[in-house]
Write a structure and sequence with these properties.
Elements: E1 11-16, E2 19-24, H1 35-50, E3 56-61, E4 66-68, H2 76-79, H3 83-102, E5 107-111, E6 114-116, H4 118-124, E7 128-132, E8 136-138, H5 141-144, H6 150-160, H7 162-171, H8 177-182, E9 188-190, H9 195-208, H10 211-224, H11 233-244, H12 247-257
Parallel strand pairs: 2-3, 3-5, 4-6, 5-7, 6-8, 7-9
Antiparallel strand pairs: 1-2
Length: 267
Protein backbone atom coordinates (compact mmCIF):
# COMPACT_ATOMS: atom_id res chain seq x y z
CA UNK A 1 0.00 0.00 0.00
CA UNK A 2 0.98 3.64 -0.37
CA UNK A 3 3.17 5.05 2.39
CA UNK A 4 1.18 8.31 2.38
CA UNK A 5 -2.21 9.57 1.18
CA UNK A 6 -2.61 10.37 -2.50
CA UNK A 7 -1.69 13.94 -3.38
CA UNK A 8 -5.05 14.32 -5.13
CA UNK A 9 -8.54 13.22 -4.15
CA UNK A 10 -9.36 13.22 -7.87
CA UNK A 11 -7.35 10.08 -8.51
CA UNK A 12 -8.50 6.59 -7.59
CA UNK A 13 -6.48 3.39 -7.60
CA UNK A 14 -7.67 -0.14 -7.03
CA UNK A 15 -6.16 -3.61 -6.91
CA UNK A 16 -8.25 -6.49 -8.20
CA UNK A 17 -6.14 -9.62 -8.01
CA UNK A 18 -3.39 -9.22 -10.59
CA UNK A 19 -5.02 -6.12 -12.13
CA UNK A 20 -4.14 -2.61 -10.96
CA UNK A 21 -6.55 0.17 -11.89
CA UNK A 22 -5.87 3.89 -12.23
CA UNK A 23 -9.00 6.04 -12.52
CA UNK A 24 -9.00 9.73 -13.42
CA UNK A 25 -11.82 11.04 -11.24
CA UNK A 26 -12.63 14.62 -12.22
CA UNK A 27 -15.92 14.12 -14.12
CA UNK A 28 -17.11 17.69 -13.57
CA UNK A 29 -14.28 18.75 -15.91
CA UNK A 30 -14.41 15.66 -18.15
CA UNK A 31 -11.44 14.29 -16.19
CA UNK A 32 -9.16 17.17 -17.07
CA UNK A 33 -5.91 16.55 -15.21
CA UNK A 34 -4.52 19.00 -12.68
CA UNK A 35 -0.95 19.20 -11.44
CA UNK A 36 -1.74 17.35 -8.21
CA UNK A 37 -3.46 14.60 -10.20
CA UNK A 38 -0.28 14.06 -12.22
CA UNK A 39 1.65 13.87 -8.96
CA UNK A 40 -0.80 11.26 -7.67
CA UNK A 41 -0.35 9.18 -10.84
CA UNK A 42 3.35 9.02 -10.00
CA UNK A 43 2.53 7.81 -6.48
CA UNK A 44 0.19 5.12 -7.78
CA UNK A 45 2.72 3.87 -10.31
CA UNK A 46 5.40 3.60 -7.64
CA UNK A 47 3.04 1.42 -5.60
CA UNK A 48 2.11 -0.80 -8.56
CA UNK A 49 5.75 -1.17 -9.57
CA UNK A 50 6.70 -2.37 -6.10
CA UNK A 51 3.84 -4.88 -5.88
CA UNK A 52 4.76 -8.17 -7.61
CA UNK A 53 1.13 -9.33 -7.48
CA UNK A 54 0.13 -6.62 -9.98
CA UNK A 55 0.73 -7.93 -13.51
CA UNK A 56 -1.45 -5.61 -15.62
CA UNK A 57 -2.41 -1.94 -15.22
CA UNK A 58 -5.68 -0.54 -16.60
CA UNK A 59 -6.33 3.20 -16.95
CA UNK A 60 -9.81 4.71 -17.25
CA UNK A 61 -11.84 7.84 -16.59
CA UNK A 62 -14.77 8.26 -14.21
CA UNK A 63 -18.19 9.57 -15.14
CA UNK A 64 -18.74 7.85 -18.47
CA UNK A 65 -18.14 10.93 -20.64
CA UNK A 66 -14.37 11.13 -20.86
CA UNK A 67 -11.16 9.16 -20.51
CA UNK A 68 -9.13 12.33 -20.06
CA UNK A 69 -10.08 15.57 -21.79
CA UNK A 70 -6.62 17.09 -21.42
CA UNK A 71 -4.92 19.36 -18.93
CA UNK A 72 -7.06 21.39 -16.53
CA UNK A 73 -6.93 24.73 -18.36
CA UNK A 74 -8.33 26.52 -15.30
CA UNK A 75 -4.87 26.03 -13.77
CA UNK A 76 -2.98 27.57 -16.69
CA UNK A 77 -3.11 31.15 -15.41
CA UNK A 78 -1.60 30.13 -12.08
CA UNK A 79 0.45 27.05 -12.94
CA UNK A 80 1.63 27.81 -16.49
CA UNK A 81 1.64 31.61 -16.72
CA UNK A 82 5.41 31.94 -17.18
CA UNK A 83 7.94 29.87 -19.09
CA UNK A 84 9.38 28.65 -15.79
CA UNK A 85 5.98 27.62 -14.44
CA UNK A 86 5.07 25.91 -17.70
CA UNK A 87 8.37 24.04 -17.61
CA UNK A 88 7.69 22.80 -14.07
CA UNK A 89 4.17 21.72 -15.03
CA UNK A 90 5.56 19.86 -18.03
CA UNK A 91 8.21 18.20 -15.86
CA UNK A 92 5.65 16.83 -13.40
CA UNK A 93 3.15 15.67 -16.03
CA UNK A 94 5.88 14.13 -18.19
CA UNK A 95 7.34 12.29 -15.19
CA UNK A 96 3.92 10.69 -14.59
CA UNK A 97 3.50 9.72 -18.24
CA UNK A 98 7.03 8.32 -18.33
CA UNK A 99 6.18 6.17 -15.32
CA UNK A 100 3.32 4.75 -17.38
CA UNK A 101 5.42 4.42 -20.52
CA UNK A 102 8.51 2.94 -18.92
CA UNK A 103 6.90 0.34 -16.66
CA UNK A 104 7.63 -3.22 -17.74
CA UNK A 105 4.13 -4.24 -16.70
CA UNK A 106 1.62 -4.18 -19.58
CA UNK A 107 -0.78 -1.24 -19.58
CA UNK A 108 -4.23 -0.86 -21.15
CA UNK A 109 -6.09 2.41 -21.74
CA UNK A 110 -9.85 1.83 -21.46
CA UNK A 111 -11.25 4.80 -23.36
CA UNK A 112 -14.83 6.03 -23.21
CA UNK A 113 -15.72 9.54 -24.38
CA UNK A 114 -13.23 12.34 -24.81
CA UNK A 115 -9.54 11.46 -25.16
CA UNK A 116 -8.06 14.84 -25.91
CA UNK A 117 -4.67 16.53 -25.57
CA UNK A 118 -3.04 15.20 -22.42
CA UNK A 119 -5.56 12.39 -22.57
CA UNK A 120 -4.15 11.33 -25.92
CA UNK A 121 -0.63 11.53 -24.53
CA UNK A 122 -1.67 9.38 -21.57
CA UNK A 123 -3.35 6.81 -23.82
CA UNK A 124 -0.32 6.76 -26.12
CA UNK A 125 1.88 5.98 -23.11
CA UNK A 126 -0.07 2.74 -22.68
CA UNK A 127 0.68 -0.47 -24.55
CA UNK A 128 -2.88 -1.17 -25.69
CA UNK A 129 -5.85 1.15 -26.29
CA UNK A 130 -9.45 -0.10 -26.36
CA UNK A 131 -12.17 2.45 -27.09
CA UNK A 132 -15.95 2.51 -26.81
CA UNK A 133 -17.87 3.51 -29.91
CA UNK A 134 -18.52 7.24 -30.03
CA UNK A 135 -15.30 8.24 -28.27
CA UNK A 136 -13.44 11.31 -29.56
CA UNK A 137 -9.69 11.82 -30.05
CA UNK A 138 -7.64 14.91 -30.74
CA UNK A 139 -4.68 17.13 -29.90
CA UNK A 140 -5.86 20.78 -29.85
CA UNK A 141 -2.40 22.31 -29.27
CA UNK A 142 -2.65 24.40 -32.45
CA UNK A 143 -5.87 25.96 -31.14
CA UNK A 144 -4.20 26.92 -27.85
CA UNK A 145 -0.82 28.06 -29.11
CA UNK A 146 0.96 25.30 -27.22
CA UNK A 147 4.23 23.76 -28.33
CA UNK A 148 4.44 19.97 -28.36
CA UNK A 149 7.73 18.41 -27.31
CA UNK A 150 9.71 16.03 -29.52
CA UNK A 151 9.06 12.96 -27.38
CA UNK A 152 5.29 13.39 -27.63
CA UNK A 153 5.37 13.94 -31.38
CA UNK A 154 7.70 10.98 -31.87
CA UNK A 155 5.45 8.71 -29.82
CA UNK A 156 2.48 9.61 -32.00
CA UNK A 157 4.51 9.04 -35.18
CA UNK A 158 5.60 5.61 -33.91
CA UNK A 159 1.96 4.62 -33.53
CA UNK A 160 0.10 6.24 -36.45
CA UNK A 161 2.90 7.24 -38.84
CA UNK A 162 3.99 10.72 -39.98
CA UNK A 163 1.08 11.46 -42.34
CA UNK A 164 -1.61 10.92 -39.72
CA UNK A 165 0.51 12.65 -37.07
CA UNK A 166 0.65 15.75 -39.27
CA UNK A 167 -3.11 15.68 -39.80
CA UNK A 168 -3.77 15.32 -36.07
CA UNK A 169 -1.48 18.23 -35.17
CA UNK A 170 -2.19 20.53 -38.13
CA UNK A 171 -5.99 20.34 -38.01
CA UNK A 172 -6.32 20.11 -34.20
CA UNK A 173 -9.74 18.61 -34.84
CA UNK A 174 -11.48 15.75 -33.09
CA UNK A 175 -11.35 12.31 -34.70
CA UNK A 176 -13.97 9.56 -34.47
CA UNK A 177 -13.35 6.04 -33.20
CA UNK A 178 -13.61 4.79 -36.79
CA UNK A 179 -10.83 7.17 -37.85
CA UNK A 180 -8.77 6.28 -34.78
CA UNK A 181 -9.04 2.57 -35.58
CA UNK A 182 -8.13 3.13 -39.23
CA UNK A 183 -4.97 5.05 -38.37
CA UNK A 184 -3.92 2.52 -35.71
CA UNK A 185 -4.42 4.91 -32.82
CA UNK A 186 -6.52 2.29 -31.00
CA UNK A 187 -6.34 -1.50 -31.03
CA UNK A 188 -10.06 -2.14 -30.79
CA UNK A 189 -13.39 -0.30 -30.93
CA UNK A 190 -16.28 -2.00 -29.14
CA UNK A 191 -19.89 -1.10 -28.30
CA UNK A 192 -20.00 1.06 -25.18
CA UNK A 193 -21.80 -1.58 -23.13
CA UNK A 194 -19.05 -4.11 -23.92
CA UNK A 195 -16.06 -1.94 -23.04
CA UNK A 196 -15.54 -3.03 -19.42
CA UNK A 197 -16.01 -6.72 -20.20
CA UNK A 198 -13.66 -6.56 -23.19
CA UNK A 199 -10.90 -4.88 -21.21
CA UNK A 200 -11.46 -7.09 -18.17
CA UNK A 201 -11.13 -10.23 -20.27
CA UNK A 202 -8.03 -8.89 -21.99
CA UNK A 203 -6.40 -7.91 -18.69
CA UNK A 204 -7.16 -11.32 -17.15
CA UNK A 205 -5.77 -13.09 -20.20
CA UNK A 206 -2.53 -11.11 -20.02
CA UNK A 207 -2.29 -11.55 -16.24
CA UNK A 208 -2.64 -15.32 -16.66
CA UNK A 209 0.26 -15.54 -19.09
CA UNK A 210 3.93 -15.90 -18.15
CA UNK A 211 5.04 -12.50 -16.75
CA UNK A 212 8.66 -12.92 -17.87
CA UNK A 213 7.57 -13.64 -21.44
CA UNK A 214 5.23 -10.64 -21.51
CA UNK A 215 7.92 -8.42 -20.04
CA UNK A 216 10.52 -9.66 -22.52
CA UNK A 217 8.18 -8.95 -25.43
CA UNK A 218 7.56 -5.43 -24.15
CA UNK A 219 11.28 -4.78 -23.81
CA UNK A 220 12.09 -6.12 -27.27
CA UNK A 221 9.31 -4.09 -28.92
CA UNK A 222 10.68 -1.02 -27.17
CA UNK A 223 14.18 -1.69 -28.50
CA UNK A 224 12.88 -2.39 -32.01
CA UNK A 225 11.29 1.08 -32.11
CA UNK A 226 14.63 2.75 -31.46
CA UNK A 227 17.10 3.75 -34.15
CA UNK A 228 19.17 0.71 -35.04
CA UNK A 229 22.35 2.23 -33.62
CA UNK A 230 20.69 2.71 -30.23
CA UNK A 231 19.17 -0.75 -29.83
CA UNK A 232 20.40 -2.86 -26.92
CA UNK A 233 20.62 -6.25 -28.59
CA UNK A 234 22.37 -7.76 -25.57
CA UNK A 235 19.32 -6.86 -23.49
CA UNK A 236 17.05 -8.52 -26.06
CA UNK A 237 19.13 -11.68 -25.97
CA UNK A 238 19.30 -11.69 -22.16
CA UNK A 239 15.55 -11.36 -21.54
CA UNK A 240 14.87 -14.27 -23.91
CA UNK A 241 17.45 -16.41 -22.14
CA UNK A 242 15.84 -15.52 -18.79
CA UNK A 243 12.54 -16.89 -20.07
CA UNK A 244 14.08 -20.23 -21.04
CA UNK A 245 15.91 -20.45 -17.71
CA UNK A 246 12.80 -19.70 -15.64
CA UNK A 247 10.59 -21.90 -13.49
CA UNK A 248 7.68 -20.60 -15.56
CA UNK A 249 9.11 -22.20 -18.71
CA UNK A 250 9.20 -25.54 -16.92
CA UNK A 251 5.66 -24.97 -15.65
CA UNK A 252 4.41 -24.03 -19.11
CA UNK A 253 5.81 -27.18 -20.70
CA UNK A 254 4.55 -29.38 -17.88
CA UNK A 255 1.07 -27.87 -17.93
CA UNK A 256 0.87 -28.33 -21.70
CA UNK A 257 1.76 -32.02 -21.43
CA UNK A 258 -0.66 -32.50 -18.54
CA UNK A 259 -3.42 -30.64 -20.40
CA UNK A 260 -4.03 -28.17 -17.59
CA UNK A 261 -3.87 -24.42 -17.15
CA UNK A 262 -0.38 -23.27 -16.17
CA UNK A 263 0.20 -21.37 -12.95
CA UNK A 264 2.94 -18.83 -13.61
CA UNK A 265 4.87 -17.16 -10.79
CA UNK A 266 7.03 -14.72 -12.68
CA UNK A 267 10.28 -16.47 -11.87
Amino acid sequence: MLDQPLLSSKMIFEKDGAIGRIIFNNPARHNAVSLDMWQAVGQIMEDFESDPSIRVIVLSGAGGKAFVSGADISEFKEKRASAEAAEEYARVSEKARLALQETLKPTIAMIRGYCIGGGMATALACDIRVAAEGSKFGIPAAKLGLGYAYDGVKKLIDIVGPAYAREIFFTARQFTTEEALRMGLVNQVVPSEELETTVENMAKTIAGNAPLTVRAAKQIVREALKDESKRDMELCKRVVQECFASEDYTEGRTAFMEKRRPVFKGR
